[in-house]
Amino acid sequence: MDLREQNIWKSIQGRDKGVFEHFYKEHYKLFYLAACQYLKDGALAEEVVNDVFLRIWEGAAQIDIQTSLRSYVYRAVVNRSINELGKGKKDRVHRKELARRPEETTEIREMETNELKVKLYEAIDRLPDQCRKVFMMSRFEEMKQQEIADRLHISIKTVKNHITHALKQLHAVLSDWHSLPVWIILLKSFFER
After folding, report:
1. What is the pTM of this model?
2. Domain that includes residue 157, residue range
3. Strand, coil or helix: what is 64?
């Protein structure tokens, strides 16, 4: 968990309603869409997301989050959605189908892509300042290495070293991600959107 999320989580654990509400409003749509992908029912998805947030608020003091706060809540919403599917026979069949073929479900793939984007942006935010600046100029602004070197008054070798370092750091942070073999291919396309 990065420093910003640590501060948010400490505030939530300290019962700061303002911080909790801000986090809820900022991320609600992502979690709601995740629940909708499984449940195919907007009202039930809303209920699931609200229930997850309520449980987090009520149990914050006892919850130990090892990953990012957003990832933790996302997983809790997905798990709760799957549990909801298990409540009826019709829904159990649907859950088994999802478990067997999640890669074939476009919506699920899109949600996983969004979660991967979150992890990528968090990893980029943790890069050293100059390294992050060079990497963002290269990937977001699509500047050539020589242009970056000229603008920042550094050598092209330093630019290359920063980009290599950034890619290694991102790879290390995302090494546990199940879609990792394709993340380098997808990296540029994430930033083009």
Report:
1. 0.47
2. 127-192
3. coil
